[in-house]
Structure formats: C-alpha cells, structure tokens
C-alpha cells in the first residue's frame, strides 16, 4: 500500500482497527485525544464497539470485561490517565486476558502539562499495578514504528494472554510523517477456548484474579513468572547503529533516540567514534545485548526525557565500573542534538584525560 501523511495518534488508532480491534473504550486526554476521536468514527463505521467512558477507571474496567469475553480490545491514554488505570492493569494480568494499551506520555508529576515526556518509564515497566509482574512494553520512535508495534502488540497480547503497552509520547502522537498502514485483518470467527461466551454447549469458564490461600496464590504466581521468563527469552527487541567500533554509545528510546540519532550522525562526521543503542522493548529490557556492548566501549551516555528512569536499568546492567553519563530533560522539554553533541565531546575529553593520567 502507498504511504500516507499520518499523525501519530491517528496512525496507531487506524493500525489497531486494521489489526482486528473489536472494541475500544477510552476517555479524552491530551495529547492523545485524536486517537479517541478517530476510533469514535471508524469503529462505528465498521459496526464495532466504541464507548467514551466516564473516566479512565471506567474505561479500563470495560476493557477488562471485553477481554474476558475473548474480544480483541484496547484503550489509549496519557500519563495521569494511565495512573488511574493501574488497578485494572493488575486485574487484567492476574486474570490472564490479552489487552493492548497505548500510552502517549506527557509531562508530570500531577496534571503537569500536555508536552511530550518519557516520565512514565517507571510506571509502565515497574509499577503498572500491584503484584509480581511486568507488562510487555514496546517503545516506537517513528510514526511507522508506532503503526507496526501497535499491530504487533495485539499479536503478543494474544500469544501470551497478557498486557502489552505501547509507550509513545506527546511528540510522537502529534507529529505527522509518511507511513504505510497494514492491510485490514479479518475479525475472529470464534472466541478463544478460555473466554466467557455463555457456556451453552460446554462447561463454564471462570476468569478471576482471586486465589484464596497463600499456597494457591503462590502457585499462580510461579506460573506467571514462568510466562514472564518465556517473554524475556523470546521477545527482546533493540536497535544498534554505528556500534561496531564505537568508544562511546548513546542509549536512548523513543523520541529521545531520534534526537540522539541526529547527534550521532553529526559527531561521526567530525570523526568521533560514537554509536547508538535503542531499546525497543522497555520490558523485557535488552540486558544481555547492552552488557555485551558495554564490554567493548569506554563509556555509555544515557539520554532521556525524564530525570533518569531508564538510567537505573542501564547502570544495573553494566555495573559500577563502567562510566555512565546522563542527560535528562523534564517537564515536557525535549533535548536538542547540540546538547547531546556538546556533552558527548566533554565525555570524550574526560576519557582522554583519564587515559593520559
């Protein structure tokens, strides 16, 4: 299919429609409201389910109900709205039903502002609801990748019967780029065998996240940890650019990685051996690949649109002996390439000075 000029929010919403999303429940919040607006039109056109709920709490519980019925379902929101959905996330994972969430992150804490941010990293990778689990988290950096990863999210949610979050930000949601949409998939002809369908011709299914007694709940948690281990083994995704002989590697995701990519290009034109490592799965984090890369470099430089949330994961992976520099912009501020270039040159100078001593 030919490429179209698409806004990020519209692109992921249409990608969900074409991936077979049968129901969407959401609540408007900037900077992702265009997604809800697009769904309000397209889902009705296709005789599918669209509901603008009275709140994010209501929306996520509607999603939970639809998922329990075996419906391919999603919602989207932005940072404060994602916070309100956290209890529902935990019920969804505890009940092992597949759900897709798109988080178009904005500045915080609190109401913050409507500018682009990456301050939900901890929220979506570490604390997305109570209990011992992680959602699978995908981080696109272009509108095309936002389309592709939203489509993939439905497949992964179904494959593992779990929660998959697509972690975008206000910049990606609002920007327009040429991108290609996938073909329309057929909707499911039959509901999954585990779904709640009325049990007219079989024994009834039970979907619940309550396990009375410590032994029963521990048994379920061990099963859940086994599933997470399978995801960690099979679903790690990342991208490397110019890392073969790089002495400094910049680590960034999403919009920050796009900015870092420009900085890397400029620095390499100056003859500086710089590379880029971009996690695409924020969970499972690409620990092994980053560790192996760190053993061949002199330093890492983490760039984020927050106070250093992924930074903790990077430091945990590479250990205390590897120099790790950090540049973070907060509150909706986006780093500029020249900031990254300036800090990278300073890091090179520090490394050269230390080697001479």
List keywords for this structure.
14 strands; Rossmann fold; 357 residues; 5-stranded mixed β-sheet; single chain; 44% helix; alpha/beta
| Beta-strand percentage range | 15-25%
In CATH, the homologous superfamily of the largest domain goes by the name: Thiamin diphosphate (ThDP)-binding fold, Pyr/PP domains
The ordered H/E elements are EHEHEHEHHEHEHEHEHEEHEEHEHEH
Structural class: alpha/beta
Q: Looking at CATH, which topology of the largest domain would you report? A: Rossmann fold
Helix content range: 40-55%
Major β-sheet profile: 7 strands, mixed
- Biggest sheet: strands side by side, in what order? 3-2-4-5-7-6-12
Helical segment count:
13
What is the CATH domain class of the largest domain? Alpha Beta
Label the CATH architecture of the largest domain: 3-Layer(aba) Sandwich
Tertiary shape? globular
- The whole-angstrom Rg is 21 Å
**Uncertain spans:** none
Mean pLDDT over the residues: 96
Gap from first CA to last CA: 59 Å
Kindly state the number of beta strands.
14
Count of discrete domains: 2
Protein architecture, described:
With 357 residues, the protein is of the alpha/beta class. It has 2 domains: 231 residues, Thiamin diphosphate (ThDP)-binding fold, Pyr/PP domains (Rossmann fold, 3-Layer(aba) Sandwich), CATH 3.40.50.970; 118 residues, Rossmann fold (3-Layer(aba) Sandwich), CATH 3.40.50.920. The protein contains 13 helices and 14 strands. Helix 2 links the parallel strand 2 and strand 3. The radius of gyration is 21 Å and the shape is globular. The model has no long low-confidence stretch (mean pLDDT 96).
